[in-house]
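Late entry, evening session. Most of the bench is empty. Finally got around to the prediction I had been postponing all week. Sequence below, unchanged from the version circulated by S.P.
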Amino acid sequence: MKKVISIVLAVVMCLSLAACGGNSAPENTVNSKEDLAGKTIGVQIGTTGDTVVAADYAANEGATVSQFNSGILAVQALKQGKVDCVIIDEEPAKNYVASNDGIKILEDTFEPEDYAICVKKGNTELLDKFNTALAELEADGTLQKIKDNYIGDNAGKTPYETPEGTEYPNGKLVMATNATFPPYEFIQDNKVVGIDADIAKAICDKLGYELEILDMEFEGIIAAVDSGKADFGAAGMTVTEERLESVDFTNTYTTSKNVIIVRE
């Protein structure tokens, strides 16, 4: 009898495991941009992956757009089978794939995009100061060193350091960002760090301002700048015609492109 019971229990356990396996994510069906028609696309709300790329597939190809407050939440939904793919900027995509098993980036990409810093519409004084500082940081190699410190083979080797003797006679500037977008902005040791944070610090050091960083939802950044809650926004933000209706942008400090993340 004991032997029979043991066999029955073993069969039940096997059936249970099989049932659990049935809850795994479905097989990937997106292998190129051509496969996006009719699919459910995960995006970070307010990004160009949402408002430009995925929106176009929703309008013209029958796709469904599923919005999330951060890219990592979209990636989690992908792994769970709740979306068919995620469309997001290339460098954050690389970070998400590196830290999550079972996903990959397709070779297909979308049009290049320009990243810039946004300021309140009409604030030409601050805009001119930022553009001057950016040009100087580009010329002396600081911008490239900041980017190299987070991207590529030399990552971690060229951290930005405030020049000795820097003073801040002009008060404080507040930067709005969304710290879920590595390597441009993310949380480390309870502090917002990343390419945008370092560039903002370098600009403020040059201009004699202290820097305060406010972490918020991405879609709230432009409103924060427009209302005066923040002096500027830096968050891996692409210059678009729609955004230019609400804010002004500095000169470009880097470029990016949207990519597609899928299950392996």
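Two things to note before I forget:
The mean pLDDT is 92.
The two ends are 46 Å apart (CA to CA).
Will write this up properly tomorrow.
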